[in-house]
Amino acid sequence: MDTKPLTVDGFLDSVPTPGAVPYTARFQLVVSPTDDVVDDVIWSCTTVNARIAHALLTETQPGDLLHVSGVLTQSDTPAEPARLTVDALEVLAPAPARALQEMVLDRYGDYVVVFDADTDAVPVFTALGQWVGMAESPDTIGTLIEIHERVKGGDA
Question: Most Cβ neighbours (<10 Å): which of 54, 79, 117, 139?
């Protein structure tokens, strides 16, 4: 494994997701070394810093311009992508406001979901803002909420 420190600016590509371990997060960053879209690179990023994970999961949205620093790890196997483990994060600029027609918030009892015309995936939160998970499609929202109710006991 080859590692090196790296600091880069890039745009948050999609909604960050919780990592496999508590207080961690995964996200993708679009980095453009030039002004040409052809040169864009998508970095797979993770963080094990609880403060950064919380900020990513609750305060950021796709399109935010981020300044991140961390350690880039390149596997010895060429088929495996490089991964940036982030230990510093700064939001340089929030994403521009999206047109109202593109996103719709809906309420499912104590839960809030965000429908986006650009994707089938549906982020699900409790009404108090706690991340529940990402439903693969609108048809799986109910299942995700039922699992959350059984495991966490809801938002109450």
Answer: 54
Beta strands in the chain (DSSP E): 2-12, 17-18, 25-31, 41-47, 65-74, 83-93, 103-108, 111-116, 122-126, 131-135
Q: What pTM value is reported for the model?
A: 0.60
pLDDT digits (tens, 9 = 90+) for 8-26: 999 999 899 998 888 999 9
Summarised one tens digit per residue, pLDDT across range 56-71 is: 998 998 889 999 999 9
The pairing of strands 25-31 and 2-12 is: antiparallel
3-state SS, residue 22: coil
> How far, in Å, CA of 93 to CA of 95, rounded?
7
Average pLDDT over residues 72-82: 81
Phi, psi of 39, deg, nearest 5: -90, -5
Residues 6+ away with beta carbon under 8 Å from 38: none
